[in-house]
Amino acid sequence: MRVLLSILMLTFFVSCSKKTFVEDKVFAGGVHASAWKLNKGEQIYKEYCMACHGVKGDGKGPAHKGMKVPPRDFTLGIYKFGKITTGELPHDRHFYDILKYGLHGTAMLPWDLTEGQMDAVVQYIKTFAPKVWEGKDKKLGAEILPSADPFGEAHRSAAIQKGKEIYHGVANCQSCHRGYVSLEEFSGINKKINGEGVAELDADFYKVKPQETEYGYLSIPPDFTWDHVRSASTVEELYVRLAAGVGGTAMPAWKDTITDEEIWAVAYYVKSLMDVKDTPERKTLMSKLK
User: What would be the CATH architecture of the domain defined by 20-133?
Assistant: First the structure.
């Protein structure tokens, strides 16, 4: 009996000490991840992340079925909220921000992890998409940081007005999101910018329009007066998201498509819409859009 117990205990300790990774890896941007760090990251992932994102990192954890917003499928190597142009690879600190602050309106909560823990789990997550991440020849995207704000608080009203015009008359954001102006105002904006007014609004002008994504499901763009904006809550954060776009979705990177000043203006305008959420001002605004 003692011999059998000893064998069982030995088997247990050997199995517990078995490590998934025995070799170091080099990821995009020349990031070196030791086998020790990857094994630590796996442990942290299993404790904090696996319930939603799954054993295989495919977003199919046991908790995913009850979620309105599906957990990210890491095996695709596509990331929505990097601070780089969509389609490029994000930097590690972009992942840290998501871990630290979460994503508004989703089950992705802020996690109280040390920077060492965040580093370990981020390196481990990369192993779910080896063709995307592994290799010293892989490049990270150029980081998008806020430029100097051309408006500032003193010119906030002017920025909001300009942003409203760019939103509805240049970028045509209402083609995915929704419109926030009356027919009369929309016609005036188009006449000012495009030289010709409009006689009527599209039937879906005041509706958000579900969009195809690279994740295999439809994405519903936010109504900025009602829904959460997942990765931004300030004008500066909105500037970055507008400039960078949202990876794997219909939300493009507006950097180099409209001017930097126009991106700032739209950020101010969208923030003004977010600010009426859960206030009497929203009801007033909506009453004018009929």
Answer: Orthogonal Bundle (1.10)
**Among 48, 58, 60, CA closest to 108:** 48
3-class SS of residue 22: coil
Residue 19, judged by CB atoms within 10 A of its CB (0-12, 13-18, 19+), counts as exposed
Contact 53, 61 (CB under 8 A): yes
Residue 290: exposure state from Cβ atoms within 10 A (0-12, 13-18, ≥19): exposed
Contact 223, 177 (CB under 8 A): yes
For the entire predicted model, the pTM comes to 0.91
Gyration radius of the chain over CA positions: 23
For the segment 108-166, what is each residue's pLDDT rounded down to a tens digit? Answer: 999 999 999 999 999 999 999 999 999 999 999 999 999 999 999 999 999 999 999 99
153-287 homologous superfamily: Cytochrome c-like domain (1.10.760.10)
Rounded-to-integer distance, Cα 93 and Cα 77, Å: 16
E strands, the chain, in order = 25-27, 31-33
Is-contact 86 246, C-beta < 8 A?
yes
Helices 115-126 and 35-48, packing angle to 10 deg: 100
